[in-house]
Amino acid sequence: MNNTISSETTLVCANCGKKGTDVTNTCNKCKSVMYCNAACKKKHRHKHKKECARRVAELHDEKLFAQPPPLEDCPICFLRVPSLESGSVYMNCCGKRICRGCTHTVESRAAKKEDYICPFCRTQAANSYMEMIRRYKKRVEQDDTIGMRDLGFMYRNGENGLLQNRAKALELYRRAAELGDAGAYCFIGYTYKNGDGVDVDEKKAVHYFELAAMGGNAQARRNLGVKECRAGNYDRALKHLMIATRDGDSESLQGIRAMYMSGHATKDDYAKVLRSYQEYLGEIKSDQRDEAAAFKNDYEYYESAI
Asked: N or C: which end of the chain has fewer CB within 10 A?
């Protein structure tokens, strides 16, 4: 539905019917009706309440179920980075996210682990936890959202020489989320879902999962799909899982298969999602990534090897 207000509508007060160029007071929530002043808006509120809520829900769903932009391309091979976190490596020296195929090429050339250098900036790998944390903190100073999120995760678990500090972890997640990092929104969602240093709050968890999903986080999208499926909202569940599958989430594909087997999704739905998943695999496929997957077959970081 088009949410823009026509020129004719903008000239008519929804409460008193007054026409004129001074009818400029818009409903703050749905933005679909106009009033000549705040008094008319207040008087009309009880009549407009249901329609406003319906329109707000429509606008929300338009954003929620829009296909998000794909993840960035690998800066080395310029192919789409796999959606699974394990399909790429974050370089704490330069802040680049590089696919496993390109990192494997450099790793295979190194005589030993200490000889490994960043495929992008050619910086030698950190030789201690202290050096690694120093690099992460430097990335945080430069507003690197992945660096913030990863450092937050380390604080959350008390890893790599850091003392466990869940408040610090949430602070870093929030900072990264404010800068637009979808993965950070997902981490905040889990924080509230699991009561990780905060009170359990399912409503807040869903809110942050939705923000993450709209930003392109397939895991958060899958979580929303599972929640809708458990609530019996199969149409909404299917929408979420289909978007997540198109973004490369194999578990969402299996979820749709289960829905098809139980009669909650059609054969056409399942065929469509299979095609979209194959398209995704085609977009991320390369000989280098195949070689990396074969070399490290104990890691399921490359979806075509599943």
From this structure: N
Please state the domain count of the chain: 1
Identify whether 31 is part of a domain: yes
pLDDT tens across the length of the chain (306 residues): 444 454 444 579 998 988 887 888 889 888 888 898 889 988 998 999 999 999 899 999 999 999 888 778 999 999 999 988 778 999 999 999 999 999 988 887 766 665 789 999 999 989 899 999 999 999 999 999 999 999 999 999 999 999 999 999 999 999 999 999 999 999 999 999 999 999 999 999 999 999 999 999 999 999 999 999 999 999 999 999 999 999 999 999 999 999 999 999 999 999 999 999 999 999 999 999 988 887 764 333 333 332
Q: Is residue 70 part of a domain?
A: no
Q: Rounded to whole angstroms, how far apart are CA atoms 282 and 79?
A: 10
CB neighbours of residue 288 within 10 Å: 18
Cα–Cα distance, 140 to 135 (Å, whole number): 9
The predicted model scores a pTM of: 0.84
In 3-state terms, the chain is what percent helix, strand and coil (to 5)? 60, 5, 35
Q: Is residue 43 part of a domain?
A: yes
The answer to whether residue 24 sits within a structural domain is yes
Q: Which residue range forms the structural domain that includes residue 22?
A: 9-61
